[in-house]
Amino acid sequence: MKTPLYDKHISLKARMAPFGEWEMPIQYSGIIDEHLHTRKSASIFDICHMGEFILEGKNALQDIEKILTAKLSSLNINRCRYSFMLNESGGIIDDLIIYRLEEEKYMFVVNSATADADAEWIKNHISSETDFENISDITSKIDLQGPASKEVLQKLTSANLSELKYFRFIETTIDNVSAIISRTGYTGELGYEIYIPANNAEQIWDKSLENKSVKPAGLGARDTLRLEVGLPLYGHELSLDCNPAQTCFMFAVNLDKDFIGKDAVIKAKENGVEEKLAGFKLEGRQSPRAGQKIKNDIGEIIGEITSGSFGPTLGNSIAFGYVNSDFCELETEVQIDTGRKLLSARVCQTPFYVNKEARK
Fold it and tell me: Rounded CA gap, 353 and 35, in Å?
């Protein structure tokens, strides 16, 4: 499948490649160049492949509380929240952001690879009083990320972006196009996720790129940016085989409410888990890849890498991986088997990189 911006990527000579069922831009000028430009200026990302659902009705809140791990009764209108959606055994069906648009109206933003399965799960677990609408085909999502993004976007909208705080959003216009501007992102920088009608995607993309501070960035840079700030990628750090208690992201789970999978999460927390997700720091530029085995000092396999990359902001390689719980202590030394050589690594604190200004 192709996003509404496919022709734009071709004209910009992007390197295209399949991502799930989508033909997506992986890079333009180069992953490292795009990564560093995002950290110092502003980059624009085509994220139109993501899924968007609307849930609405008098029972919507009650139904959503049951489906998601985050507490929604405390979520005010024009605010959003990160959450998991679990099955009965505690496996992670998806991670997502939920937006409260109105008192009885919500928007789910889900991963593209899981969108169809997510839709079926949700429809099978809501009451007949709650309306479900999949608006993915008529909605485009463009991300503008980086310290210059506020200045860039402010020139295109009359909304006062200075008043828009982290994990809040507004419904407004951009270049006279109806839009939701969300103060969120996947890069760890000041940034915005923008939802617009699909037939206006090219207009907003072009208008943003008229600003010389902005460059297009592909999924390659998006992946290295999210890894540096310790954010998960579904299918790597998160999956149906993973319980939230194994991850670094239990902040997305509220055990003071009932939800599908709660008993399995509590059991995992109380009984402990065999493997946990940990961050690893390596010296030098050579990085591990997903699926490579983690070994102890006598060569026994103790885990597996889920994501790995050179961190352009950091100057060294980093990785996420699930490892035996006995080897999760900070500074624990391990070896990562690339098939050709063993890379020395040590368990470290995540996120690997923090920009404290980004969440203000």
Answer: 13
Number of alpha carbons in the 13 Å side-chain half-sphere of residue 349: 2
What is the number of H-type helices and E-type strands within the chain? 8, 19
Q: Does residue 346 lie within any of the structural domains?
A: yes
- In sequence order, what E strands does the chain have? 15-19, 22-27, 42-46, 51-56, 80-86, 92-102, 105-110, 131-134, 139-145, 169-174, 177-182, 191-197, 214-216, 275-282, 293-295, 301-311, 316-324, 333-337, 342-348
The pLDDT of residue 20: 87
Domain contains 302? yes
Strand pairing partners for 251?
A: none
Nearest-CA neighbor of 150 among 109, 200, 202, 194? 194
Task: Tell me whether the omega of the peptide bond preceding residue 312 falls within 30 degrees of 0, making it cis.
Answer: no
pLDDT at residue number 360: 80
Quick: pLDDT tens for 282-292: 999 999 999 99
Whether residue 317 lies inside any domain: the answer is yes
Q: How far apart are CA 146 and CA 43, in angstroms?
A: 6
Range of the domain at 305: 274-358
Provide the pLDDT for residue 128.
Answer: 97
Provide the token pair at 129: 């009083």
Q: Which tokens sit at 18?
A: 């399949």
DSSP track, 268-319? HHHH--SEEEEEEEESSS----TTPEEE-TTS-EEEEEEEEEEETTTTEEEE
Q: Is residue 340 part of a domain?
A: yes
